[in-house]
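Case study 2.
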Amino acid sequence: MAVRRISKASKRRIMTFGIASIFMILYFFVNSVQYIININKLENEEKRLAQELSDLKSEESNLKTEIQKLQDPDYIARYARENYLYSKDGEYVIRIEPKEPEEKEAESKINYKQIGLLSVGGIAVAYFIIRSKK
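Prediction:
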């Protein structure tokens, strides 16, 4: 069997096209990854904007109902009394603010450091009283 020899020019041509094809394949993969990332970002933005649109539509419907309610004079009078402390003649307005959740929590919390110090102090006092009686 005859061994076929490849000329130097052919080797150079194969190396040149091989390197060029490797760069083209790498370029294709890099661009594909960039397009996939871009598509993912756009899908996330679409979801966010769809959620924002639904929030704005619900706010719009709430505002439309509020506009309809504000057409009623009785509602306007009640709204002014509740929010702006207006009153009728001979009527007194007393507003009682609800306690803040932090205040309720602070009142119900037990301070274990104080209890520990009091118990240690009580033990020390009892020790000195017993010792002084001996």
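The helical segments are 8-69, 73-84, 101-108, 112-133.
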